[in-house]
Prior knowledge:
464 residues, alpha/beta, nine-stranded mixed β-sheet, two-stranded antiparallel sheet
Amino acid sequence: MAKIDKKExxxxxxxxxNKKFCPAPFMHTYxxxxxxxxxxxxxxxxxxxxxTESSLKDQHEEFWKxxxxxxxxxxxxxxxxxxxxxWWCGRWEKEGIYHKSDRLDYIKRYELELKExxxxxxxxxxxxxxxxxxxxxxxxxxxxxxxxxCRSCNSLWSNQIEQEVxxxxxxxxxxxxxxxxxxxxxxxxxxxxxxxDPKFDVVSNLDFSKVFRLKMSGGETLIDPRVYNIMKKxxxxxxxxxxxxxxxxNCTSLPSRIYDLLAQFKEVSFNISVDGVGATDEFLRDGTxxxxxxxxxxxxxxxxNLKWAGIMHVFQPVxxxxxxxxxxxxxxxxxxxxxxxxxxxxxxxVDPWYLSxxxxxxxxxxxxxxxxxxxxxxxxxCKEEQQWFDLLHSELDKTQTDERRIRYxxxxxRAELALNKIRGTDTLTIEPMLQRYFDRYDSNNVxxxxxxxxxxxxxxxxxx
Length: 464
């Protein structure tokens, strides 16, 4: 899948009513069962909530035509980017990193899906489009059932982390893993909901009848019975042959019953989470068995209807110094499965902000940049492969004040020390180059009064 450069961005913008226009609020919906949230897309702010007292199908149909959605659609028709979108798509487009703009990606994907492109689509602020009258592209987060406890994740996305937080008061109230104890609603759900119970399912009654794209994430989708139920429902209805299915997976499990259902969709694609190689991935994504993960990775590429699979790599302090060994592994897979491998995205951290590499010392940033240069030379990386580093450089090039650098480094060490004590792990065994930050650690100069990462540069963080 070709990346979106400036020329392609301009072409895509010419297809829709104006240069700021996004088709997502007219055709797409994001529904998160973990925090009962509606969003314009996965990277916008939450713009609505739902409950479990009535049918999710009925609630969503009401939300789709709500005053909030009408105002947002009107803004896009007027050539204005709404506030929920400015922090993400607006940011990347201003930086010229167009392939990170979800807005441009939506235009590209719908151009592919619609036989006549956008020429026959009638945008409507109430129904979305007069042709479909409901979302045809759904991003669904069915639950937080997971088998891992990833360092960059939190209790909103993993029931394993939620259980760990509830069992360890020392990481409650301040750590980024704790998205549960400071909220009465979250605590009530934690006490009432067993995500491992297959009977807990509030999402399968959604209307998938006109959907031609379905994306699901967790938790971990490939072990979640709710994901299985939805896929089975679509296959049994005979609609699977019309649906492009996208899954986000930690690549630790691919049961036969899931594989068989996946093979019946029009096409499938995957974002595969890999944060390091070997022991580093096992450390950052606790519960991972690297040898098994590699086998699942290879099995994904045997799916007969696989369109593409790409790597989502969280670029964070523990993994940043190992860029060379990581890229070596990425390239092996990319060059082995050249037709279907979609490459690598070096994902920047948006929460917690102290996992951003922007606070690293300048000489450490230079070391990482040098590693990138060596990758390009030694591995003879082509231009397309080198584009993987665009986001890496964007994060390294960000600067912080000395005050912020020191405080975020302290926040990072504080969190690592706490989790190492609970899990019996050692960050410095995995990455010795972080030693200086542990040596300089000052427990009196950390973020207080809110979860670290709740604000960055004076701006509130996006809410999942």
